[in-house]
Design a protein that fits this description.
The chain has 163 residues and is of the alpha+beta class. The chain has three helices and nine strands. The longest helix is centred in the first third of the chain and has 22 residues, at 2-23. The model is unreliable at 3-24 (pLDDT under 50).
């Protein structure tokens, strides 16, 4: 009987210790916003050309939700956050389950900063460092794998460089 009590107490202790872990996990709301899709091309200084199928986050609701609650994303996919004007931006990973590379883009479509391998669920602000008009989120490691660097150009109709 004493052994059963020790097991019960130990089990209760384990449950009590694990309970807070569940509180920090994202649970998708009943309704999520939808996104239009488009293609972008990233041209690298080394001569590479990489095409991605992206979802466009244009409205405040879309930008607020972003890639939250997603369990995965295809290797050639991403999300392009477009803003009305160029200014300093900061992103975070609240409720985002997958690690991401964040590419900060100026009005001409030039990548000015890359924050690689952002940490899921982190509330740390990831700053652009200078005024940008867009942020492209790709799967973590994509920038390194494809040798995408600051100074490379994103081709899309939203930028002065066009498509």
């Amino acid at each position: 009987m004493e052994k059963l009590n020790k097991i019960a107490v130990l089990g209760a202790l384990v449950l009590a210790l694990l309970a807070p872990l569940g509180e920090g996990r994202a649970q998708a709301p009943d309704s999520l916003v939808s996104f239009d899709r488009d293609q972008i091309t990233i041209e690298t200084a080394a001569g590479g050309s990489h095409v991605f199928e992206v979802e466009l986050a244009i409205t405040p609701e879309q930008r607020s939700q972003g890639l939250m609650f997603r369990h995965s994303m295809p290797a050639d996919a991403g999300m392009l956050f477009l803003f009305e004007r160029s200014e300093q931006r900061a992103m975070w990973m609240k409720n985002t389950l997958i690690p991401l590379d964040m590419l900060f883009i100026d009005e001409g479509g030039v990548i000015v900063r890359i924050h690689a391998r952002s940490v899921p669920f982190s509330l740390q602000a990831i700053a652009s460092g200078q005024p940008v008009i867009a942020v492209l989120e790709l799967n973590a490691g994509t920038s390194a794998r494809l040798s995408i660097k600051p100074g490379d150009r994103v081709l899309h109709g939203a930028f002065e460089s066009g498509s």
